[in-house]
Amino acid sequence: MNILAIDIGTTTGWALGTRDGEIKSGSKSFAPSRTDGPGQRWLKFRAHLTELGRSVGELQAVYYEDVRRHGPGQVLAAHAYGGFLAHLQHWCEMNHVQCIPLGVGQIKKSWTGKGNAKKDAMIAEAIRRGYKPVDDNHADALAILDLARALESGQVELTSKPKKKKPAKPRKAPSFFAAAA
Question: Domain extents for the chain?
C-alpha cells in the first residue's frame, strides 16, 4: 500500500511509504513570497501532493495530523492549517484517495511513548530510528507514517480512553410543575 503521511502547515512535513517498503520524506515550505498572489501557496501545495502521488503511481491513503487546538496567539497558524486541510481533503476526494486523520497525542504516544512529547523528543526519536529529519515537521511526518503502517497492517488499533462521567447533580423541577400538582 502506498501511503502519504503529512504534517500540514506552512512548513509541511511529508513521508511517502511505498508498498515495497521504501520511504521518501522531507519538509517543504509553502510560505508565500512577496510577489505571490494570495492563492499561490494553495496551488503549490496541491502541485506538491500531485507530484508525490505520481512518484509512486497511485496513493491508497493519506494520513495527516489532525490538529484540534491552536495555542494563544496562533490565530494565523489556525487559519493556515484550515486552508491546508481543506485543500488536502479536496485533493484526496478528486483523486479517490482515503484521507485519514490521526490525533496529535496518538501520533506522539505511538512514536515516543508520551502523548505530550515535545518537538525535540519527536526529532530525537526519528534520529534514534535511523532517520535524518530536517525539522520537527519532517519528524512528525515520519511518526505519522510509522503509525499509519502499523494501523494498516493490523499491528495497532486506535482506542480512545472512555471519558469519566461526572455524577449528575440532582435538579429541582421547574416551578410550573409544582403548580400543576
Answer: 3-180
Which residue type, as a one-letter code, is found at position 4?
Answer: L
Radius of gyration, alpha carbons of the chain:
21
Tell me how far apart the alpha carbons of residues 6 and 131 are, in angstroms, rounded to a whole number. Answer: 16
Residue-wise burial string across 46-81, b where 16 or more C-beta atoms lie within 10 A, e elsewhere: eebbeebbeebeebebbbbbebeeeeeeeeeeeebb
Q: Quickly tell me which residue has 512548513 as its cell.
A: 11
The number of angstroms, rounded, from the C-alpha of 59 to the middle of its chain's C-alpha atoms is: 17
Inter-residue contact 160 to 108 (CB < 8 Å): no
Of 143, 132, 147, nearest to 26 (Cα)? 132
The structural architecture, per CATH, of the domain 3-180 is 2-Layer Sandwich (3.30)
pTM: 0.84
Per-residue model confidence as pLDDT tens digits over 14-70: 999 999 999 999 999 999 999 999 899 999 999 999 999 999 999 999 999 999 877
What is the per-residue pLDDT for 33? 92
For the record, the C-alpha cell of 50 comes out as 500531485
* Torsion 150-153-154-160 (CA) sign: positive
For 131, which DSSP code?
A: -
